[in-house]
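hi support,

uploading two proteins for the ticket. first:
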Amino acid sequence: MSQSNPYKTRTGLSRVWWATLYSYEGLFAAFRHESAFRQESLLAVLMVPLAFWLGRTWLETGVLLLSVVLVLVVELLNSAIEAVVDRQSFEWHELAKRAKDYGSAAVHLTLVFCGGVWGMALWERLAT
């Protein structure tokens, strides 16, 4: 007996409602199972209010917030890649290693970007 895809039968607001619920399930699962996502989420809880103090214009505040949200999004994508690779096999394989390394590199680049944005904003705020 095959399971039917609930998205095929849902349309309109019902589909949006269920997609939203599944999205929250994903966020809660990531928080529960991924320590890096937990750490970055806790930092985001501190950084989001700080962005409203640090940013002098709505654009600066938006860029600060975007950099924080981007870290969380890329971490979720990296966790998804790792979950799919691990689901397939725990045996070492060059392509599996590359996929995980690419995901890790994406998170690293995003963290460097976020740090750079926040560093420049702090420099601008504190130097003047």
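and the second one:
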Amino acid sequence: MEISECRRALLRALLRASQLAEAIQRSCRALISGEEASARASERGSIELLRTNDLVLISRIEAILFETGIAVFVADRHMSAVEGSLGFLPRRLMIDAADAARARAVLTEAGLGEELPNG
């Protein structure tokens, strides 16, 4: 391998490493902002938006609320280890009480209004 080929390969590797570092930084910023949002929600009080065993529904609601900037905490997520992975304990989606009306509106617009209690 010639020196110029080695330089090109090294530059490609450095560029890829830089891109990966930027992706990691973006992920960390998103994680930190999510944790900060959860901390703010617990300070102001949170409410149960939904209680379900449907893991796909939980994932979909989490994604929709994340896109709109509403922090969501899934309570009892790790109870499956205690229950033996049977899935009979429902998970609870908790949100900041101040975001309840907006979350219901967003989920209703997304076609999930019938999944919400009193919705």
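thanks. also noticed: The chain has four helices and three strands.
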